[in-house]
Amino acid sequence: MATGAIAKPREVVRESVFHWEGRDKTGKVVKGEMRAGGESVVAASLRRRGIMVSKIKKQSFARGRKISEKDLAIFTRQLSTMLRAGVPLLQCFDIVARGHSNPSMSRLLNDIKMDIETGTSLNQAFRKYPIYFDPLFCNLVAAGEQAGILETLLDRLATYKEKTLALKGKIKKAMFYPLMIILVAILITSIIMIFVIPSFKSVFTSFGADLPAPTLMVIAMSDFFVEYWYVLLFGLVGSIYFLIQAWKRSPKVQMAIDRLILKPPVIGELMQKASIARWSRTLSTTFAAGVPLVEALDSVGPAAGNAVYKEATKQIQSEVNIGTSLAQAMQNSGVFPNMAVQMTSIGEESGSLDSMLSKVADYYEREVDETVDALASLIEPIIMVELGVIIGG
Question: Which of 33, 152, 197, 346 would be a feasible disulfide site paired with 222, CB 3.0-4.6 Å?
Answer without folding.
Answer: 197
